[in-house]
Amino acid sequence: EVHLVESGGGLVQPGGSLRLSCAASGFTFSTYPMGWFRQAPGKGRELVAAISWIVNNTYYSDSVKGRFTISRDNAEKTVYLQMNSLKPEDTAKYFCAATPPPMQLSPRGYKYWGQGTQVTVSS
C-alpha cells in the first residue's frame, strides 16, 4: 500500500522559514518524480516545485522561485521542501505527490498523494 506522509507545517511569521518533509512507502520511490503542491481556501491546487528522479532536474513556479528549494533523499525515501522568506500569500495546505516518469506539471498527472500539511504565514 502506498503512503505519502507530510510533516513540518505550522505557523510562521512573514520572512520566516519552514522545511516540509514527505516520507514515502509502498512504491519504488527512487524512480518516481515528486512534486509539492499547495491549495489555499477557494483556490485550485497549484504546483509549487517538482523534482525528477534525476536529482538535478527541478521545476519551480514563478511565485516561489529563489525562495523555495526542493530536494530528495532516495535512501530515506523522502522529499523535502525548504521554504525561506515566507509571505502571507504562501499560506495554504501543502501536499506532496508522486508520478511515474516523466516529471509532470499538472496535478492530473500525479498518481499518489499525501494528506497534506498546513502552512500559515502570519504575524
Description:
Helix content is 0%, strand content 46%. The protein contains no helices and 11 strands. It is mainly beta and 123 residues long. A hairpin with a 6-residue loop joins strand 4 (34-39) and strand 5 (46-51). The chain has strands at residues 3-7, 10-12, 18-25, 34-39, 46-51, 58-60, 68-73, 78-83, 92-98, 112-113, 117-121. The chain is globular. Strands 2, 4, 5, 6, 9, 10 and 11 form a 7-stranded mixed sheet that branches. Strands 1-3-8-7 form a 4-stranded antiparallel sheet, with no helix packed on it.
Order of helices and strands: EEEEEEEEEEE
Total number of strands:
11
Task: Work out the radius of gyration.
Answer: 13 Å
Strand residue content: over 45%
Q: How would you characterize the largest beta sheet?
A: 7 strands, mixed
Residue ranges: pLDDT <50 for 5 or more in a row?
none
SS-derived structural category = mainly beta
Total helical segments: 0
| Distance between the ends | 40 Å
Please bin the fraction of helical residues.
under 10%
Tell me, briefly, the overall form.
globular
